[in-house]
Amino acid sequence: FSNSLFSSYMDWFHNFNCSLLFGVLSFVSVMFGYLLFSNFYFKSKKIEYQFGELLCSIFPTLILVAQMVPSLSLLYYYGLMNLDSNLTVKVTGHQWYWSYEFSDIPGLEFDSYMKSVDQLELGEPRLLEVDNRCVVPCDINVRFCITSGDVIHSWALPSMSIKLDAMSGILSTVSYSFPTVGVFYGQCSEICGANHSFMPIALEVTLLDNFKSWCMGFMEN
């Protein structure tokens, strides 16, 4: 399920490549079966088949072009996403929790730990809900700067097609615009120790006015 324009493009490109691969496999299977069970091929005295050789050169080229055009378009769109941002969030992975710092809002930083079973409220998913969600506004380009304070982690949101490794001393960046309001969950996707499976990610996308109210309430508390 795609929750953004970029992830929709990624899903479409994946389905397109799978359809293309299925067509190629079907064609090769039919031709192989024809050559295997037909006596025409073995009775033919022609050793060279120039038209067939030409097709074997043209078809792979057309397939590569068909893959190249949407691939370059997707890369170009991804590059446009990283040109500018209205909000910067620094994400730091620790054993075994995440820290968030809003660089454009001084003093707005917090740690995010997984909620235990006895802390969960009705409707909150087990092993995915956290005590402090990362809240961002929708329809605004947000830049995430991801790093680590110790070992290698990976900040991943599958529903948004986001997955970046968090490495100590290296700042990985990605810009994203969220058109859908909601709460999206992910987990650390890099084995980082004994409690690797207990450092979930909860990203809440809300309206701009609600985001401003959340920031003011967080700063007051």
Automatic annotation (TrEMBL):
Presence of the UniProt keyword Magnesium in the record: yes
What positions does the domain Cytochrome oxidase subunit II copper A binding occupy? 84-217
- Superkingdom, natural source: Eukaryota
* One GO cellular component term noted in the UniProt record for this chain: mitochondrial inner membrane
The chemistry this enzyme catalyses reads:
4 Fe(II)-[cytochrome c] + O2 + 8 H(+)(in) = 4 Fe(III)-[cytochrome c] + 2 H2O + 4 H(+)(out)
Membrane-spanning residues: 20-42, 54-78
Task: Recite the UniProt keywords alphabetically.
Answer: Copper, Electron transport, Magnesium, Membrane, Metal-binding, Mitochondrion, Mitochondrion inner membrane, Respiratory chain, Translocase, Transmembrane, Transmembrane helix, Transport
- Membrane-related topology note: Multi-pass membrane protein
Kindly list the cofactors needed.
Cu cation
Name one molecular function that GO assigns to this entry: copper ion binding
User: Which EC number(s) does the record attach to this protein?
Assistant: 7.1.1.9
Please name the InterPro entries in this protein's record.
CcO_II, CcO_II-like_C, CcO_II_C, Copper_CuA, Cupredoxin, Cyt_c_oxidase_su2_TM_dom, Cyt_c_oxidase_su2_TM_sf
Q: Chief subcellular site?
A: mitochondrion
Quaternary structure per UniProt? Component of the cytochrome c oxidase (complex IV, CIV), a multisubunit enzyme composed of a catalytic core of 3 subunits and several supernumerary subunits. The complex exists as a monomer or a dimer and forms supercomplexes (SCs) in the inner mitochondrial membrane with ubiquinol-cytochrome c oxidoreductase (cytochrome b-c1 complex, complex III, CIII).
Protein family membership: Belongs to the cytochrome c oxidase subunit 2 family.
What the entry lists under PANTHER family is as follows: CYTOCHROME C OXIDASE SUBUNIT 2, CYTOCHROME C OXIDASE, SUBUNIT II
The protein, known as:
Cytochrome c oxidase subunit 2
Q: What species was this sequence derived from?
A: Anisakis simplex
